[in-house]
Amino acid sequence: MTREIAWSEWLDSPPLSIADFEAAIRAVGEERYHDKHPFHKLLHGGKLNKGQVQAWALNRYCYQEAVPRKDAAFMSRVHDRELRREWIHRIHDHDGLGEEAGGIERWLVLTDGLGLSRDYVTSRRGALPATKFAVEAYVRFVVEQPLVVAVASSLTELFAPAIHRERIAGMLANYDFVDDHVMAYFKRRLSQAPRDSDFALGYIKANAHTRAEQEACVAAVRFKCDVLWAQLDALHHAYVAPGVIPPGAFRPGEV
Amino acid sequence: MTREIAWSEWLDSPPLSIADFEAAIRAVGEERYHDKHPFHKLLHGGKLNKGQVQAWALNRYCYQEAVPRKDAAFMSRVHDRELRREWIHRIHDHDGLGEEAGGIERWLVLTDGLGLSRDYVTSRRGALPATKFAVEAYVRFVVEQPLVVAVASSLTELFAPAIHRERIAGMLANYDFVDDHVMAYFKRRLSQAPRDSDFALGYIKANAHTRAEQEACVAAVRFKCDVLWAQLDALHHAYVAPGVIPPGAFRPGEV
Question: CB-based contacts of B208: which residues, under 8 Å, 6+ apart?
């Protein structure tokens, strides 16, 4: 279907209908969202030991920590005040605002619960280089791409609630070092992510006018899935199989 | 005094005392803050006609509009969540938050009061190229410079309350097209700017450790004064003397 047409042909093709455009975006999730990655199946199925879950949580911290910087980088390019006023709540969701501590704090409650020190986690010292490269590629992407394409890259949020529900149930059932309290991050995201993805989906429908722009949006969701997938590849390689931990990266039991 | 030492010598010099560092920052204001520019003296002294005040207001809009983007660009580089949580209120001040409309809205009340259409002002179509180049140089500066130097570049706020008080009094007294309502922007900044400059001054005192870092901070305040000064040079050239308006720029009476 649409995926098989060469990019140069899209330039002259009529735009997809709004329904087909949304379907093409959603199809990316079915094809390559990281819920299909073997590491996630191990994580949710209770097949990892505590050290491996620690490795996941402290690497994933780098992604959490990059997201508000990504959103700020996006806002730095936006001349439309109304769009900035809408987008800034994503930073509030992660960094908190006033009394509200925000999602990163909830992530640190998770890493606390796993017995990792906050200084070590927030230093990002033990994170895999591939994690840091992947998340910074995301920050750069929203700086360098057209705004509508940058917005599209956030649309993995369309696929997030399902994985979060699965993760909450699976991790609570399978790990005695995980409780309700430490899963607060994912519970909060169940309501935040749909609000964000509704806005972003509406935005790209209204602002991707040509077929080429629509395809660039679809490619942006693929790119973002790659950012997420690459993080799990690196975790799997370092901590599952073959289990070769890169120099300087977190070694379970040694922190 | 300190300004006469070559950069290479600073590398080996001991750091300034905190008091001397602050004095060096403040001395930049005395030397080159834009309250010394002839255009400001004309503006505050009631010596401009309405078209010239319009030109000032719509060019200055570009600066106002760049500031929250500059703050977002800065935040996109900050890994310290507490610093982001502190800095984000600057974006709230300009863009507003929820019910609060923010400083850019107040600036548009000023341009409304001057009889300019919002579409025209916010399009930035009539602004002088030199204005846009200057403000975007500021946005780039905070992306490219070390964080402490980026923070220092905000410190022209140390000098702002005095010019705002002078501007409120001078413009109200001298122009029949200016009233209390349209001067709301400046009144609000009288309380916002000192909060921001107190934080920024504390930050650079705590984070500029070497003489070279301190001097880079002083140079950042000079850079920022240049950004402001260059905007007034361009206005003066186009709308006062010799009064040669660049192609495409605002022509009083024609909008």
Answer: B15, B21, B148, B152, B214, B216, B217
